[in-house]
Amino acid sequence: MTARSPLRAVLLLGAFGAALWLVVPAAARTAPLYWDAAAVYGPGAKWLPPLYYLWVAAWMRAVGARPVLGPALSLLAAALALLGTCQFGSRLGRPRAGAMAAVLLLASPLFASMSTQLLPELTMTALATLCLVTYADERIYLCALSGVLLVLCKETGLAIPLGIAGAECLRAWRVRRLSPGRVAFFVGGAAIVALGAFFAWQRAREGWIVLPYHQGLFAERALTAGHAVEVASSIGWLDGRWLAAGLALVCAMRSVATGTGPWREPRTARVMLAAGLGAAAFIGFFAKMFWLRRYALPAHPGVCVVIALVLDEAGGRWLGGRAGALAPAAVVAAAAALGLRELHAGTEVASGEATFRWLDVVATRKDAYRALDRWRGAGAPFVLTAWPMEDELREPWLGWTEQAVDARSIDGWQRRLSSHAPGTRAAPDAVVLQVGCCDEARLRASTRGLRRLAAPEVRGARAEVWVRDSGVIGRSESP
Questions:
Q1: Which run of H or of E encompasses 407?
Q2: Domain boundaries, given as residue ranges, for the chain
Q3: How far is Cα 243 from Cα 306, in angstroms, rounded to an integer?
Q4: 8 A C-beta contact, residue 132 and residue 88
């Protein structure tokens, strides 16, 4: 299962693609793009490392940007990340360790959700596994190239090459030899040079090195132990992974006490350390920087491999035979089941970052705009909603209404009101809000003088539509 032959790699890639197809809800595979690069990062892509956006542009030019075809790029990256995780674990231990690591990654609601959205983290995760696999194989040139591609997708990809460089520096210090230091200099230095070249180009073109908005986000967030714990738990503890990680921690402590463990083999120890240092780099940076769970997704494969290696080695050493193989697999299966139970968990729109809650929110928004179509206010009604939902009518992604609608976020509208911007409407014709979601209180306060038209609900995600009676054409329907 090490996938060293091209045919076996293709077969495993197909198997992981089929597994993703089963895990990802059918509606997500055909849903419009949501909370993705098209709305969030697209307008500012010129201020970010360009590689991912060039890939997306080439992909959409080749296959089109319709639902299924556009997000298929992320599904492909997810399948490659699973294949890389499996290979990474198999390189360091038994083939079943690689399989268990891939299962842990696949069962993460965050990983599954992001596999349907056009955002750079899944491509970065696939490149991170390539970087770690080539490092385990001591193919240093390919490892360095993978690190360069990582940072040209997004600056935070630097964490993985730095983890490898850190492991090699510690190795050089321990053996008192310079050759590991040269590897560290090459892998880490290549990524740093590539990122530095991008920053220099940005400085020459825009006049600053780091986007001022990102500078503000970094300055605003305090560096605290709580933030570090939050990031660390998202990588190794949440979504059922706590079961496998907790038992792996117990097994690791016992192995240290008895002088055993997978790290007794020098190459395995070095590569496990590199994966851990890469994860630590993500934790350290995002303990200070603005944080969303997907930002550290490239660290997940390495952590899953470490967990699987510890469980598999402990099972084989302490139980032996078939029991030694089945016990770790049962633990991973139970952890995966706990993770899959959380596929639709969450209460806020931002939970779409980590689960398929966004799919339920999208369904309620579609129903809300169908209700607005039935109401058919005269002209183009001014609809007040929450960011980023004012983007939901853009074509061809989220055109959910048959009539013209002027949708605005409450933040933008209130800013225009306070600045007395010309053409700003004094009151909305309709309000669309998400219960238990961002800006619900402020949007609900804006419903004074309106009546509730509909309250669509899907799997506990609930929206409300409030409208003004004046100017109604035809008969409205009450919920």
A1: strand 406-409
A2: 6-343, 357-467
A3: 14
A4: yes
